[in-house]
Amino acid sequence: MLTIVISAIYGVWAIFAPGSIMSTYGTPEEFVNPVTLNIVMLFGVAAWVVAILGWHIRSTVT
Q1: How many CA atoms lie within 13 A of 36 on its CB side?
Q2: CA distance 42 to 15
Q3: What is the distance between the terminal CA atoms of the chain, rounded to a whole angstrom?
Q4: Each residue's pLDDT tens digit, 46-62
Q5: What is the sign, positive or negative, of the torsion defined by CA atoms of 24, 16, 33, 6?
Q6: Rama region for 24: left / alpha / beta (φ>0; ψ in -120 to 50; rest)
Q7: How far out from the chain centre does Cα 57 lie?
Q8: Which pLDDT score is estimated for 7?
Q9: Which structural domain range is residue 34 located in?
Q10: DSSP line for 6-42
Q11: Which residues of the chain have pLDDT under 50?
Q12: What's the number of domains the chain is made of?
């Protein structure tokens, strides 16, 4: 259950505020560009997929 919750929170954060994640990680300003922001957003989508699959597996098994 913890993985599902963390994946959902991280996914929303990465999709809607990728610049905030980059500054939280301490990324230098010269490395923040549209390509890196899109990569962070893709990781957010992947986190949402993990959350949805985990939720589905949990509801199917239990």
Answers
A1: 13
A2: 8
A3: 12
A4: 999 999 999 999 999 97
A5: positive
A6: alpha
A7: 19
A8: 93
A9: 2-61
A10: HHHHHHHHHHH-HHHHHHHTT--GGG--HHHHHHHHH
A11: none
A12: 1
Tell me the CA distances in angstroms from 43 to 18, 23, 32, 48, 58, one per residue in order: 10, 16, 15, 9, 22
Q: Which residues contact 43 (CB under 8 A, 6 or more apart)?
A: 14
Helix axes 2-16, 34-61, angle to 10 degrees: 150
pLDDT value of position 6:
92
Q: Could you give the CA distance from residue 18 to residue 1 in angstroms, rounded to a whole number? A: 25
Q: Give the length of the chain.
A: 62
